[in-house]
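SEVERITY: medium
COMPONENT: batch folding queue
REPORTER: lab tech (J.R.)

DESCRIPTION
The queue accepted two submissions in a row. Attaching both inputs and their returned structure tokens so the on-call engineer can compare them side by side.

ATTACHMENT 1
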Amino acid sequence: MRLTRYLAAGALSVSLAACSTSPTGRPQLMLMSDAQLDQMGAQAFAQYQQELPTVGGAPLRYVQCVTQAVVRVLPERERNQNWQVEVFASEQANAFALPGGYVGINTGLLRVAQNQDQLAAVIGHEIAHVLARHANERASTQTATEFGLSAISSAAGMQGPAGDTMMAALGMGAQYGILLPFSRSHESEADILGLNLMADAGFDPRASIALWNNMSAAGGAQPPVWMSTHPSHGQRIDGLEAAMDEAMARYERAHRAGRTPHCPRP
């Protein structure tokens, strides 16, 4: 009983200190400031630049063109950041956006995203993670989870081999029952936010479906959904199709407003 009260009081103090909501209205736990996240983003981007060779010329101009079109429809704070874009020489079909205004695209991804609209689906998704402050939420959830496990260990007096075994079991439960599903919710949220961003920028949102079909064809076997930090390709496509009517309406409004990006693919 004392353990329950102790954990409840700790969880309440953390949640009261950092309650927020995502752009879709989902409750979020935020323990870090935007300035801290921006600094972490800058450090991570610098590390990428040190570890992977970068590519300039036409590929970089292409990615910059698509990114700039998406950035122009962001809210003021994110729009006014000095966005930096790099193309990295890597066969992995990967991309990222980081707090503080950083976008990285691997050359392997440029072979999967076959046109500007498919590339915009990727960039819109990655920038949506930044817009929804998912990095803050993930770090905060990890911190809160570790706090909870530490509190259980201290309050229950777990020591020795038996305590180590129990803590390992609790850690696995936290990983698969809290952290990974939470990450999947971020991915699904970024899919829908990114779909709307690309449509607002004037890119055809239907290309997002083609992109994930390409990703499915290019990828190997996926782990079970409950063990993955990402929804399955089929789940992503289902979610995008369910949101497509609104995205198409946004796309048509963008074209009427003159937002018709033209980014030649190298």
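ATTACHMENT 2
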Amino acid sequence: MSILEAKDLAVSYGGVFIFDHLNLEIPEGKITVFIGSNGCGKSTLLRSLARLLKPVQGEIQLDGSNISNMPSKTLAKQLSLLPQGPVTPEGLTVLQLVKQGRYPYQSWLQQWSKEDEQAVHAAIHATGMEAFTERSVDSLSGGQRQRAWIAMTLAQATDIILLDEPTTYLDLTHQIDVLDLLHELNERDGRTIVMVLHDINLACRYADHIVAIQDGTVYTQGRPSDVIHPETIESVFRLNCQVISDPIYGTPMIVPQGKLRKKQ
């Protein structure tokens, strides 16, 4: 069952089409990962799903309704986006950042409430950031900073979370840490998570559904075992590889073939 759909979508920059007649369904309650080479349109598609880019034609539907017709705060209560490399104002504490996630629920008639307070503390607890609430975000490590931004996104209390390369600039330990957290949110709360990842092996390990994008089109999509084959990697990434089974999780794992000679 899909919760978010692109229907006959066309998006352009400066008259150049990035997508044209694109159709895509995001399965509800699953982790979906977009993969593809640099510049293929992954981030553009994610931003379009979040209504940050206006389509030239077609539409994005959320639960069957065109998101273009939704009030901004209504959409922000259902769908949240964590962009790549978000910039934090200097001196902003973790607690102040996480409170920003409650903006869609504020108005002249409804100021800060007990429900807002509970949502903020629940988000901080879920991301393990209790010890950092009074620290400035710009003083944190990369992994901690990413957790703080994810906490802000969780405080927004949406059923759909979009993340643009959430593991960028993180070392392997913190990449796994962040992806484990997102997997836990999906498993525990049933949240629909859509993200862009560069690491195909990690995408296979964490995704229920993979969408391989090639030059502004959906080349193929489905379960990792149905999508990740040598032919797919060669077509989408122009890379020869072997695909073996991950020795720990049994998911597809690619072994790229480069020009390096085999060492004796």
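NOTES FROM REPORTER
The first strand starts at residue 2 and ends at 13.
No errors were logged for either attachment.
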